[in-house]
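Design review, sub-item: ligand-bound model
Attendees: FS, YL, KQ
YL presented the inputs for the dinuclear copper ion complex:
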Amino acid sequence: MGVRTEAGSTIAVLSPAGPAAAAIAEVSWVLIGGAALLFLGTMALLGWALFRKKVSEGSERSMLWWLAGGGLVLPLVVLTALFFYSLHRAPPWKAKPPADALVISVTGRMWWWEIRYRDPSTAATIVTANELRLPVGRPVYLGLSSIEVIHSLWIPELGGKMDMVPGRVNHLLLQASRAGVFRGQCAEFCGEAHARMALHAVAMDSAAFDTWLAGQESAAKAPASSIARAGLTVFKAQKCAACHTVRGVAAESKLGPDLTHLGSRLHLAAGTLKNQPEQMKEWLTQVHAVKPGARMPSYARLPEGDIDALVHWLGSLK
Ligand code: CUA
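KQ shared the predicted structure:
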């Protein structure tokens, strides 16, 4: 019984797709380059000391010069320069959101991400999960919090890490400079399924983003086929709505991810599986093999026809 857990994409560090990540990559390369230079310099001096032919007694003066110069002045100069350089390249302590920033709130859960947008034209709140869609070229101001334990949001291609702490809101200013899907990961150990707490940032051009956001605002469409109707019946009979919201269908519960537009997402189970019927079936019937610790019960006991109908209906929620 093979359980596939496909990430869908890999974490890419040092391949920046935005200004915050570009600053981090630049500092990293300067540090790596500087460390390499110092290492080579030290090895050259060591080689010179070991293999020089004639060992002459150095004068006390030249020994002092080496000690003070190499042991005191050099590190002082290098470390001071690095200190001011990294201060200069670090993001501001309290980044103020630019006027045109898109504000998105991300809440860490065990073990998934709740993501909320606000449509400025209608003031409606749009709730989704595990997928952070953002428009290319526009700053995004994230409000980060958590409910139960500390998590940390890290999308290396877009920026640095930021902790998500229950009872407070931390902020992170990100911007995507090109379209793409960027994998992020929870970067703070938060319990059993920490390793399977991934998310994907999907940077899209501005018009596509607006269309997507408007689509997310609508309630779920009524099932269009008999198998979809059967799936909805299974969803109701199994009381899935005790944890999940499907707007237009099921009473609001915020215990688990909002599924109103599940079919439009790229992944399942917080970046663990691709959102395809086969994999959704695997997820529903082998929850704890796919993601040990996940708080959803497994539905292996359901007749296969019921599972297939449920998978079909959930997949149709575009
Ligand atoms: Cu959430 Cu680690």
